[in-house]
Amino acid sequence: MVMMTRSDEPFLRAFRGGFTAALRWHQLDALWARVRERAEAGWFLYVVGEPPPAAAADAPEVLAFVAGLDARLRAEHREDHCGIVYADDPAAPTFIKVYDPRRLGVVCGFSDAPPLPGWVMSLVAPVDLVEVDRAGRRAAADARRWWRRLLR
Fold it and tell me: CB-based contacts of 133: which residues, under 8 Å, 6+ apart?
């Protein structure tokens, strides 16, 4: 029997894959239009920090989620650009990360501790990102302690 590690999880592979930002509000509008066209596709609507959903949302739930999230982003991210929504493929999205405007930190670029998104929309069943992040940070801290002991 082959044991699946966390890094083998389809959701984590997708989460760590390549993404394109909706830099401008009209690009976000186009992304949401594509999601609305495929509202019945089986989207998992994951509020990071809550338990991941066990089942995909139905089309009315997806439409309400997109409408509510869009309104919140526009109200709380009062910039002339968006830049906090990322899709794996803006023309045919299957995975979307949305960062909370109130907890941005370093979303793009390099950071030892990038923030988790606030919301994820995915056609792949999610895993608990908070637990994965916690485990990764513990492993990194353990590695740093090991190096410090080695270099003494």
Answer: 116
Residue 146 confidence (pLDDT): 44
* Distance from C-alpha of 52 to C-alpha of 38, rounded to nearest angstrom: 21
How far apart are alpha carbons 47 and 112 in whole angstroms?
A: 23
Tell me the two tokens of residue 15: 């989460």
Task: List, for residues 30-49, the tens digit of each pLDDT value.
Answer: 999 999 999 999 999 999 99
Strand order in the sheet with 44-47: 20-21, 85-87, 95-98, 119-122, 44-47
* Angle in degrees, CA 104, 106, 112, rounded to 5: 130
Task: Report how far residue 41's alpha carbon sits from residue 112's, in angstroms, rounded to the nearest whole number.
Answer: 35
**What CA–CA distances, in Å, run from 72 to 18, 83, 134, 147?**
25, 14, 27, 44
- Cα separation, 92 vs 95, in Å, equals 9
Structure tokens at 111: 């950071």
**How many beta carbons lie within 10 A of that of residue 92, not counting itself?**
10
Token pair of 131 as six digits: 């637990």
pLDDT less than 50: residues of the chain? 1-5, 107-110, 136-146, 148
Q: What is the DSSP letter of 18?
A: -
